[in-house]
Write a structure and sequence with these properties.
The chain is of the alpha/beta class. Helix content is 37%, strand content 18%. It has 23 helices and 21 strands. A hairpin with a 2-residue loop joins strand 5 and strand 6. The two termini are 41 Å apart.
C-alpha cells in the first residue's frame, strides 16, 4: 500500500533513473512529490469548437484526427502535420521535430489540444499545441483546463511531473491525513489538507487555487511559529556559561559612550539599554538589532563588546563578506584601540599568515568571515557573538559558532529593512530592537530618477562635482551585471561600462572596477585605492551594497535601477552620505513604463528603509526585499510572508492550541511536522 513515506522511485514509470532526477528537485518520497507545487498555471480552460476558433486566442478544442503525415524539408527539418475535425469543421495542426507522433497519431484517434491559433498562409492552424489522447471517462490533465506548471530540472518536464502526480492522486489514493483540529477548519475558513493537495495540482478554477494555497500556507506558518516557540522555550532554559557584571562596570561604559566622537541617538541609547539588560541575566541574550543603512548598529555592537571585555570575556563578530569584515574591523578598532583591546581579523585571505605568525588565543575580539567557523578555534571564555546579516549564514554555520563557547550571548545585526510585523514572525524566537533615527548631521541624499535624454548632462555634472568642487568628492557607478548578457543586452554591464566610461566619458578621471569575480587581494587593492582617493569613480556591481564607508563618496549612480527592489536601491544609496557633504543618488532606467518610473520616484521622497520595504511588499512582493523571487524565503515553500492577515490568524491558532493542547498530543501529525522542522541541529537564532 502506498503512503506518503513511500519512496518515489517505487512508482510505476519512475524507477531509479527518474528517481535520481527527482532527487535534484528534493523529491524522494510520495509526500515530496505531492508537495512539489506549481509555480504558475496555463489557462487552457477556454474550450471552443473548430468553427469558432479565432486568431491569437489561447484556446482548447476536442477533435478527431482525420489524417497525419511526417514531412521532411530540403533543409532537413522534420514537420508533423495533422488534420483534425469535429462536427463544426476542420483545422490543420503543425508540430516540429516530433517524428515519434506518427506512432501514436492515427486517423480516428480523439485528441484534446490547447494552444494559440495562427494564420498559416490563408488558413487557420494550431502551431505546436499541447495535446493528449482522450480516453472514455478520463478527464484531460494537460489541456482544456487550468494546467499546472512546475519547477523543472533537466529531463523532467512539467508534463511528466503532471502525469506522475495524477497517477498518485487518481489511482493510488494515498492517505493524506488531517493535521489540524476539526473545528479549526470552520473557525479559520480552511479546506481539508487532502482537498488542498488535490486542488493545488488540478484546480477547476482560480478559487480552488486560492483556497488550496491558503490552507497549505496556514499549515506552514503555524509550524514555523510553533517551532520558533519551542526554540525560544528551550533557549530560555539555558544558562550562560559566563555571567556578566553590569553594575560593576557602569562607570566605564558610561565614560566610553561619553568619549565617543559623536552623540548616540535616542534609538541607539534604547538599544544599548536593552542589550545591557539582557547581558546581566542568567539566560543568554538572543536579540535582533534592526537598523537602517548608516544608523549606527556597529557602534551599539562595539559598546556590547567593550562590556564583554570589561567582564574578562571574549567576543566574536561574524560578517558575510571580507569587505564587510574589514570595514567592521576598522570601525571597531578605531572605537576600542584607546583601551588596549586586541582585535584579530580572521578571513580566508590571511589564513596562511595567521597560522605561521599569530597566536589566535591572544585576541579579545575576533572579527571575520566564514573562516572563523573553519578555524580550529575553541574559545572557552567566549561571552558574546555578534552576527551581521544572519540570513546569509546557514543554521548549522551559526550553530558551529555557538559551539565555540558555552551558551554565549548572541546579538544579530541586520540592515535588511523588514517591516516589524514580519520581523516578529520570521524571528519569533528573538527579542527585537529597532534603530530608526539617523545620527545627527546626516543630510538626506538628494535622489533623482534621470530620464535617458539627460544622461550626458548627468555625466557632465558628475565630472564637474569631482574635478571642480572645493572638497574632495568621489562617485560610485553601479551596474547590475559583471559582463554583457545575451538575453539582457540593454542592461549595462560593469566591465563594458567601465571601458566605455574610462575611454569616452571620463578620460581625465581615474576609474576603478570592482566585482565579485575579482580575487580578495584584487578587491582589497581596488578598495584601498578608492578610500585613499586615488580612484575618482568606482564602477561596481552591487557587491558594494554593504560594508563600504568612504566619507568623500558623495555620488551614487545606479544603472538599470528598475532591476532592483526599492530596499536594495536604498541600501546602495546608503554607500554615500557617510560624511558631512551633501550627497546625491542618480537612478537610470531604460524603461518607459509609467508604473516602473513611478515606483523608482518613491525614492525621491522616502528615505526610511522600513517604509521603502513596505512599498516593495505592496508593489513587488517579498522576493524583492529578501533578495530572491523564488519559493523558499526563510524555508517557506507555500506561504507569502507578506500576508499579514494569515500571519495573525496562525498566531491566534497557535495561541489556542497552546491553551487546549500544549503538547500537541491530540494532533500528532502536526507534532510530527513541527519535529521535522526542528529535527536538524538548529541554532536558536
Amino acid at each position: 500500500m502506498v503512503d506518503l513515506n513511500t519512496p518515489v522511485n517505487q512508482l510505476i514509470m519512475v524507477g531509479p533513473i527518474y528517481g535520481a532526477k527527482l532527487s535534484k528537485l528534493g523529491i524522494k518520497t510520495i509526500e515530496d512529490l505531492l508537495f512539489h507545487i506549481p509555480f504558475r498555471y496555463e489557462n487552457y480552460s477556454n474550450v471552443s469548437t473548430i468553427r469558432n476558433l479565432q486568431v491569437g486566442e489561447k484556446v482548447s478544442t476536442t477533435a478527431t484526427i482525420a489524417s497525419f503525415e511526417n514531412i521532411y524539408t530540403k533543409y532537413g527539418k522534420r514537420i508533423q502535420k495533422a488534420k483534425i475535425s469535429d462536427a463544426t469543421g476542420e483545422i490543420e495542426v503543425t508540430w516540429y521535430n516530433q517524428p515519434f507522433l506518427k506512432n501514436i497519431f492515427h486517423p480516428g484517434v480523439k485528441l484534446s489540444l490547447s494552444g494559440e491559433v495562427k494564420w498559416f498562409g490563408k488558413n487557420l492552424t494550431f502551431v505546436s499545441p499541447e495535446y493528449e489522447i482522450l480516453k472514455p471517462g478520463i478527464p484531460p490533465i494537460h489541456t482544456g483546463r487550468l494546467v499546472p506548471v512546475y519547477p523543472e530540472t533537466e529531463g523532467l518536464s512539467s508534463k511528466w511531473l503532471r502525469s506522475r502526480i495524477n497517477v498518485v492522486l487518481t489511482k493510488l489514493f494515498p492517505q493524506i491525513p488531517e493535521m489540524l483540529p476539526t473545528n479549526f477548519l470552520s473557525r479559520f475558513n480552511l479546506i481539508s489538507r487532502k482537498e488542498a493537495i488535490y486542488k493545488i495540482h488540478f484546480p477547476q478554477n482560480y478559487e480552488d487555487i486560492e483556497a488550496s494555497k491558503r490552507r497549505l500556507s496556514f499549515d506552514e506558518l503555524l509550524i514555523l511559529q510553533w517551532a520558533a516557540d519551542i526554540r525560544k522555550k528551550e533557549f530560555n532554559q539555558k544558562t550562560v556559561g559566563h555571567k556578566f557584571e553590569v553594575e560593576k562596570f557602569k562607570k566605564e561604559v558610561d565614560e566610553f559612550i561619553q568619549n565617543l566622537p559623536f552623540r548616540l541617538t535616542e534609538d541607539q541609547k534604547k538599544a544599548v539599554a536593552e542589550i545591557i539588560s539582557d547581558l546581566e541575566k542568567t539566560k543568554p541574550m538572543n536579540r535582533l538589532l534592526e537598523g537602517d543603512v548608516g544608523s549606527g548598529k556597529t557602534v551599539v555592537a562595539a559598546i556590547s563588546m567593550y562590556l564583554t571585555y570589561l567582564n574578562g570575556y571574549k567576543s566574536v563578530l561574524l560578517a558575510p563578506t571580507e569587505i564587510l569584515a574589514q570595514q567592521h574591523y576598522q570601525t571597531v578598532s578605531q572605537l576600542l584601540s584607546p583601551y588596549k583591546i586586541k582585535l584579530g581579523l580572521i578571513t580566508a585571505s590571511n589564513r596562511i599568515k595567521r597560522q605561521k605568525n599569530e597566536d589566535l588565543s591572544k585576541f579579545n575580539i575576533y572579527i571575520g568571515t566564514h573562516a572563523l567557523l573553519s578555524e580550529k578555534l575553541k574559545i572557552d571564555d567566549l561571552g558574546l557573538i555578534v552576527i551581521d546579516e544572519q540570513q546569509k549564514f546557514g543554521v548549522e554555520q551559526r550553530a558551529i559558532l555557538r559551539d565555540k563557547g558555552k551558551n554565549p550571548h548572541v546579538l544579530i545585526l541586520t540592515a535588511t529593512p523588514i517591516p516589524r510585523t514580519i520581523a516578529l514572525t520570521l524571528y519569533a524566537d528573538l527579542d527585537l530592537s529597532v534603530i530608526e533615527e539617523m545620527p545627527s548631521g546626516r543630510q538626506k541624499i538628494k535622489t533623482w530618477v534621470v530620464p535617458a535624454e539627460k544622461r550626458n548632462s548627468a555625466y557632465i555634472w558628475i565630472e564637474k562635482q569631482i574635478k571642480h568642487s572645493d572638497f574632495k568628492q568621489q562617485a560610485f557607478i553601479i551596474c547590475p551585471f559583471i559582463e554583457e548578457s545575451e538575453s539582457l543586452e540593454t542592461v549595462r554591464a560593469a566591465k563594458t561600462e567601465f571601458e566605455k566610461l574610462q575611454k569616452e566619458i571620463f578620460p581625465a578621471l581615474h576609474l576603478g572596477l570592482l566585482h565579485g569575480k575579482l580575487t580578495t587581494t584584487q578587491k582589497q587593492k581596488v578598495m584601498a585605492q578608492f578610500k585613499n582617493g586615488k580612484i575618482d569613480i568606482l564602477v561596481s556591481t552591487p557587491v558594494v551594497e554593504v560594508g563600504i564607508d568612504v566619507p568623500t563618496a558623495t555620488i551614487m549612480m545606479i544603472e538599470a535601477a528598475d532591476r532592483f527592489g526599492l530596499a536594495q536601491l536604498h541600501q546602495l544609496r546608503g554607500r554615500v552620505g557617510r560624511g558631512n557633504l551633501q550627497s546625491y543618488c542618480l537612478l537610470f532606467t531604460e524603461s518607459e513604463n509609467t508604473k516602473t518610473i513611478d515606483r523608482l520616484k518613491i525614492l525621491e521622497r522616502v528615505f526610511n528603509g522600513p517604509k521603502l520595504s513596505e512599498y516593495d511588499l505592496k508593489l513587488r512582493g517579498a522576493g524583492e526585499i529578501f533578495g530572491t523571487r523564488q519559493h523558499g524565503h526563510f524555508g517557506l515553500k507555500f506561504a507569502d510572508i507578506t500576508d499579514l492577515v494569515l500571519i495573525e490568524e496562525t498566531k491566534q491558532a497557535a495561541k489556542i492550541l497552546a491553551e487546549i493542547d500544549p503538547d500537541l498530543s491530540q494532533v500528532s501529525l502536526l507534532k510530527e511536522e513541527v519535529q521535522k522542522y526542528t529535527i536538524a541541529k538548529v541554532s536558536p537564532d
